Amino acid sequence: MIFDVLTLFPGMFSSPLQESILGRAxxxxxxxxxxxxxxxxxxGKHLSTDDAPYGGGDxxxxxxxxxxxxxxxxxxxxxxxxxxxxxxxGVPFKQQHACDLAAExxxxxxxxxxxxxxxxxxxxxxxxxxxxxxxxxxxxELPAMVMIDAISRHLPxxxxxxxxxxxxxxxxxxxxxxxxxxxxxxxxxxxxxxLLSGDHGKxxxxxxxxxxxxxxxxxxxxxxxxxxxxEDNNILExxxxxxxxxxxxxx
Length: 251
Hints:
This protein is an alpha/beta fold. It folds into 2 domains: 2-152, SPOUT methyltransferase, trefoil knot domain (Alpha/beta knot, 3-Layer(aba) Sandwich); 185-250, Trp Operon Repressor, Chain A (Orthogonal Bundle), CATH 1.10.1270. It contains 9 helices and 9 strands. The protein has helices spanning 20-27, 64-77, 95-101, 119-124, 141-152, 164-167, 193-196, 200-218, 230-250; strands spanning 2-7, 32-37, 50-51, 61-62, 82-92, 106-110, 128-131, 185-186, 189-190. It has a 5-stranded parallel beta sheet, sandwiched between helices. A two-stranded antiparallel ribbon has the order 3-4. β5, α3 (95-101) and β6 (106-110) form a beta-alpha-beta unit. The longest helix has 21 residues, at 230-250. The mean pLDDT is 95.
């Protein structure tokens, strides 16, 4: 898997790509992350990559020509690479996107700055546009890092266990169940007895129920699209009744 990143600040990627799981995966040759300074494809004395917007207004707009030259060259090196634009106007990036994009041979990330890109970049060069949240950052570098990390987790060999991704939050459409480790008692709170029972069937049932409860309490909209079984729906019905009874008791 090859990630190419077009940015005006390639140095921002140095430390994140050297640490932890990503750093180890890169050292093992499981993936490549190549950062490129967009000015390498700019022309003129000042190697300008931006200019004033037509029609007036605040800020500068990133020019289409350097980006087009860069994308063309990178696609020649890695044929079939998809171009992804980092933008608050993009589709919200989700776990399923990370899974799908991990199947690509290469991805090119366009990291914007200033007032954004000339619209013709979107119209002629971009395959998909993603946002990591309803907020604005100073550039597209941090969203690109987030996406590279999330996508890399789906590549073979990157995680220690092939089951790890499936057990994560959103792996099966729900939030992850609570996790505990030693000590058995901390701050007066004990680990649930079922986790100490050694009964794997009961542990699995408890974890599924906790997944459903946590999702119901924190992200109920996920339940509308999660692949739920008849048993899951029966558990949810009981959980909703318990929550309603608790509310009535509090009132």
